[in-house]
Amino acid sequence: MSPWQAVLVFVAGIAAGTINTVVGSGTLITFPVLLGVGLPPVTANVSNTLGLSPGSLVGAWGYRRELVGQRERAIQLGTASMLGGIGGAVLLLTLPSSAFKAIVPVLITLALALVIFGPRLTAAMTSGRHKPSATVTPLLWTVTLGAGVYGGYFGAAQGVLLMGFLGLLLDEPLQRQNALKNILAGLVNGVAAVVFVFTAHMDWAAAGLIAAGSVLGGLLGARVGRRLPPNALRAVIVAVGVAAIVKLVA
């Protein structure tokens, strides 16, 4: 990796850490960059997962005021996230790399659809007869588990997916849901990263650069990220995601 490529990966880590804290989908920034500097898809994915883990946790710390009173809920849903993250990581390591190359463009397309249409879908569903609950229901625990499996396998838009589920099923203000989302996404990335460290080929330079950047981005996202226009963020994410699809297909 050249010095300029290292700078690019570091800056991508900052952007991803910020976006993950505020919205989710930071992987749609870092993953294409790692592909662009020459990493194979699976190596890029596992290195990216490790690198983004500290940023998610720093972002959660930045939202610590919104986490007050959510300890039991975080433990219950965190269990589902950790189990799902381990399951997704095992799937990534078990399935052939050719399957990952074939599946990832579909997952990125799904992630982009969630980024674009997720808020409208959540608003439409919550405006009906369904009433969210203040407690962790079996349905919320199960969909959190599924989001963990998705995040452990390939984390793009995991945060958007979680926010959609929390918005639909949990009776809490948006900022408290976002704080909880950061905890859950951080746990998924963390347990998946532990699995990858011991079982997969890791590009430590790339992971370290993304980790350093994502920590700064997590702090930035928690402080000023809430002021960023959501539509502008979504436009950047969609543009980078489309570039990733083109890169993988080509």
Question: Which labels suit this protein?
Answer:
single chain, 250 residues, mainly alpha, 80% helix
Could you walk me through the main structural features you see in this protein, from its secondary elements to its overall organization?
50% of the residues are buried. The chain has one domain. The protein is mainly α and 250 residues long. It has helices at 3-22, 27-36, 41-62, 71-94, 97-126, 138-153, 158-169, 174-199, 204-223, 230-249.
Protein topology:
Elements: H1 3-22, H2 27-36, H3 41-62, H4 71-94, H5 97-126, H6 138-153, H7 158-169, H8 174-199, H9 204-223, H10 230-249
Helix pairs in contact: 1-2, 1-3, 1-9, 2-3, 2-10, 3-8, 3-9, 4-6, 4-8, 5-7, 5-10, 6-7, 6-8, 7-8
Contiguous helical run count: 10
Question: What amount of the residues lies in strands?
Answer: under 5%
User: Share of helix among residues?
Assistant: over 70%
Reading the helices and strands in chain order gives: HHHHHHHHHH
N- to C-terminal distance: 22 Å
Overall geometry: globular
Rg, nearest Å: 17 Å
Look at the helices and sheets and give the structural class: mainly alpha
Oligomer: single chain
- Strand tally is 0
Give the biggest sheet: none
Unreliable sequence segments: none
Mean pLDDT: 84
Number of domains: 1
